[in-house]
Amino acid sequence: MQGVERKSDKERAAAKRRRRLEAMNLQAIEGNPLDADDVAMFGREGWSDEQCRTYILSRTPAIAK
């Protein structure tokens, strides 16, 4: 495939982290239960999207579910 650039794993991870931080910033306005320590934990421990989602949902009040 000519003309198609593939991002490195580091670039994909950085983009994923930026998107997560942007989403957290928006969610903070809406009373999101996550904080900066949670996000640092996701990155530090290399959590998958599904692991992050499960953790976030476990901390969401029952009303929001």
Q: What are the SSEs and their pairings?
A:
Elements (H helix, E strand, L loop, with lengths): L8 H21 L6 H10 L3 H11 L6
Question: How many helices in DSSP terms?
Answer: 3
The biggest sheet, with number of strands, parallel, antiparallel or mixed sense and barrel status, is: none
What level of helicity do the residues show? Answer: 55-70%
Strand content: under 5%
Structure classification? mainly alpha
Low-confidence stretches: none
Mean pLDDT across every amino acid position = 78
The count of strands amounts to 0
C-alpha geometry: globular
Distance between the termini: 43 Å
**Helix-strand pattern:** HHH
What does this structure look like?
It is a single chain. It is built from three helices and no strands. With 65 residues, it is mostly helical. The protein has helices spanning 9-29, 36-45, 49-59.
Characteristics:
65 residues; mainly alpha; 3 helices; 0% strand; globular
In short:
By secondary structure, the protein is mainly alpha-helical.
